[in-house]
Amino acid sequence: MKQNHYDYIIVGGGVSGLHLSYSFINDEYFKNHKILVIDNSKSKKQNNSFSFWEKGIGKWDSILENKWSKGKFHSKFGSIEMDFSNYNYKTLNSFSFSNFVKKNLKQNNQIKLVKDTILKIRQENKKLIVVGNKKNYYANHVFDSRPNKRFKKEQNNYTSLKQHFLGWVVRTKKAKFNKDSFVFMDYRIRDKNHTAFTYVLPFKENEALIEHTYFSKNECEKKVYENYIRDYMNNYYTSDYEVIKSEFGVIPMTSYPFYIDSTKNITKIGSAGGWIKPSTGYSFKNCEKNTLKILENIKKGKSLIIHPKTKYKFLDNILLGVLSQYNHMGEMIFYKMIKKNKTENVLRFLDEESSLLEDINIILSVKSKEFIKVFFQSFYKKAL
């Protein structure tokens, strides 16, 4: 048993599992700890884009596809120039991230990577047994990225939407893009009954990711997203282009309390741990922040269950409630938020690092009769 015993086992080699394992090997405190990463990589994973914002130089700058200090927001209410000079908007692709982290992991003797399918995790005395298809593994603590069955059963009891999207990386024959500025949200061509927008990340003057995104309850047929992207390209750039890559995704946006699925010795991580911000769908930076919080809590002997901050959980639930009941209103809400507040204040708010004064200003800037109605409903309703 000693050979298969580890201080920590990470189940899943996705974004959260890689963030956590990378944080472990870069912290001197854990240099004598044995860590195992178990991943079931049977299916070929899609090469998607991860985007986030941060100040200054970050740990992933060497593998970025691009970064921007300027952004634009377009809507029927008007266009806004967004200033990302303090918080650069950055993007990288999932393959680059995975290859970079795994290369570092393989060079470290304290960590081991194996391919196996985990059947269950059980506890005997004070040790955890991770039952794999190939063999059993033993640990003091397990970080588990697999979705919990309870969420699927109970999600309808909570306010829930999906961020679903399809994106094309396109290449044009002539220079059509400004690679120094990206489009944060563009509502000019969309399904008018839902919160839906186009997102543009220019990598080169003739190459960009054009993505059409919905915040709604149900996904669309593939042709719906594609038709909006075609219309968008034809109206604002060119009809002379080729699609060199496609990506698709569905991200849960929900008030479900994922932390209840963790226990003293098994911590749910990633989307299974609620690491996706409910109101926006952003997760990459959240994974990094939460893994560092876990390491800090280990050192201090604190619980390794990640709880959402009460204030932001409440605010996320209100925004989710508005979008759930009045899904077409997303354009107006985000326009007001971005128009009436500095970009860096909005980003701090979305990063859950804003001051009380900034919170109040943002809440007041997006107020409407619908917002006020949902605000009061949120005090006594679990699902809005």
What does this protein structure show overall?
It is a single chain. The protein is built from ten helices and 17 strands. The chain has 384 residues and is an alpha/beta fold. The protein has three domains: 2-42 and 93-154 and 255-300, FAD/NAD(P)-binding domain, CATH 3.50.50.60; 56-92 and 160-253, D-Amino Acid Oxidase, Chain A, domain 2, CATH 3.30.9.10; 310-377. A hairpin with an 8-residue loop joins strand 13 (181-186) and strand 14. Helix 6 crosses helix 10.
In short:
Helix content is 30%, strand content 32%.
| Helix percent band | 25-40%
**Uncertain segments:** none
Return the string of H and E elements.
Answer: EHEEEEEEHEEEEHEEEEHEEHHHHHH
Please identify which CATH superfamily of the largest domain we are dealing with.
Answer: FAD/NAD(P)-binding domain
**Number of DSSP helical runs:** 10
What's the CATH first level of the largest domain?
Alpha Beta
Mean pLDDT: 92
- CATH architectural category of the largest domain: 3-Layer(bba) Sandwich
CATH topology of the largest domain: FAD/NAD(P)-binding domain
Task: Give the overall form.
Answer: globular
Helical/strand content category? alpha/beta
Domain module count = 3
How many extended strands? Answer: 17
Q: Tell me about the biggest sheet?
A: 7 strands, mixed
